[in-house]
Design a protein that fits this description.
seven-stranded mixed beta sheet, 114 residues, single chain
Length: 114
């Protein structure tokens, strides 16, 4: 199983970023996928999930601002993040599964600051 995140960076409050996760080594189209994040000094936090059938789930903290999606033809998971806030700053991880305890990638850093 390999999960490689990209798309992080520095953005001003109110800005947007689109994270991507390239998946390989397993059957992506039959896997529930998620995003999790970890802020400095904090524990892992579940952010969003998407089922095999495309049903999406969001943490209250990001609902209405973040959108998770998947492209099964390209084995890629996405997280569109809009209206970013400083408290969204964290390392964002792609997760194969439903919880933060499942297999995840190495992460991509997102910093929201003016």
């Amino acid at each position: 199983v390999q999960l490689v995140e990209s798309g992080g960076g520095l953005v001003q409050p109110g800005g947007s970023l689109r994270l991507s996760c390239a998946a390989s080594g397993f059957i992506f189209s039959t896997s529930h996928m998620s995003w999790a994040r970890q802020a400095a000094g904090e524990g892992l936090e579940w952010v969003s999930g998407i089922s095999v059938g495309g049903t999406t789930y969001y943490a209250d903290a990001v609902k209405g601002r973040f959108t998770i999606s998947r492209d099964n033809a390209k084995n890629t998971l996405f997280l569109q993040m809009n209206s970013l806030k400083p408290e969204d700053s964290a390392v964002y991880y792609c997760v194969r599964g439903r919880t933060v305890r499942d297999t995840r990638g190495r992460g991509t850093q997102v910093n929201v600051s003016s």
